[in-house]
């Protein structure tokens, strides 16, 4: 094969690849988590009429520093496949903490592929900052299905709270020492 033939075949292959169907990621759909503002829990989820890829963003902003104690997600594994589940900073789409792992149905601390239960926990978040919980995956069922979960959030104690705790412990130690000396 001469150089002209190779160049022609390469040009044809390149042109054909431009018109071949390309797999595209689903456009994110935004939902709001409103109860997280008051350091509660809020539900997240979505229902689908047919098969295909999805990308859901559950947005929220806290009014004070907070701590996500747990975020759980459940699917029927034969109907929905989750490819990622995590917390992201909205300003630059960066992952906050570690992404979720798929966990066992009976022991949520043990990773087990295919269980349909996903979890991340122990993430600190800053006040007045926009975040989103992203859920990406594929719907396998053509007859319709759904996934659901919950995010639990608590307030991070202020430094004054820690100071009062230490002061109280100091007073308890002083009283115990005084009682022992008497």
Features:
182 residues; alpha+beta; Jelly Rolls; six-stranded antiparallel beta sheet; five-stranded mixed beta sheet; 2 helices; 41% strand; elongated
Compile the SSE list and pairings.
Layout: H1 3-19, E1 29-32, E2 41-48, E3 52-61, E4 66-75, E5 80-89, E6 94-95, E7 101-103, E8 117-120, E9 123-125, E10 130-139, E11 145-155, H2 159-181
Parallel strand pairs: 1-3
Antiparallel strand pairs: 2-11, 3-10, 4-8, 4-9, 4-11, 5-6, 5-10, 7-8
How would you describe this protein?
There is one protein chain. The strands form 2 sheets. Strands 2, 4, 7, 8, 9 and 11 form a 6-stranded antiparallel β-sheet that branches. A 5-stranded mixed β-sheet has the order 1-3-10-5-6, with no helix packed on it. The protein has one domain: Jelly Rolls (Sandwich). About 10% of the residues have low confidence. By secondary structure, the protein is an alpha+beta fold.
Question: What proportion of the residues form beta strands (DSSP E)?
Answer: 35-45%
Mind summarizing the main beta sheet?
6 strands, antiparallel
Please report the distance between the alpha carbons of the first and last residues: 104 Å
Q: What's the Cα radius of gyration?
A: 25 Å
Keywords: Signal
InterPro entries: Ice-binding_C
Pfam family, one: PEP-CTERM
Organism: Rugamonas rubra
């Amino acid at each position: 094969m001469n150089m002209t033939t190779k160049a022609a075949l390469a040009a044809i292959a390149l042109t054909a690849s431009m018109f071949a169907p390309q797999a595209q990621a689903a456009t994110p759909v935004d939902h709001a988590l409103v109860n997280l503002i008051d350091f509660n829990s809020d539900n997240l989820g979505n229902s689908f009429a047919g098969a295909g890829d999805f990308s859901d963003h559950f947005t929220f902003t806290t009014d004070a520093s907070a701590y996500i104690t747990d975020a759980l997600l459940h699917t029927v594994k034969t109907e929905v496949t989750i490819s990622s589940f995590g917390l992201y900073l909205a300003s630059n789409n960066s992952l906050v903490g570690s992404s979720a792992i798929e966990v066992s149905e009976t022991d949520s601390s043990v990773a087990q592929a295919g269980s349909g239960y996903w979890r991340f926990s122990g993430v600190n978040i800053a006040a007045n900052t926009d975040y989103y919980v992203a859920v990406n995956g594929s719907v396998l069922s053509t007859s319709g299905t759904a996934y659901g979960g919950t995010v639990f959030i608590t307030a991070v104690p202020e430094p004054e709270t820690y100071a009062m705790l230490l002061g109280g412990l100091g007073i308890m130690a002083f009283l115990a020492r005084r009682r022992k000396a008497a």
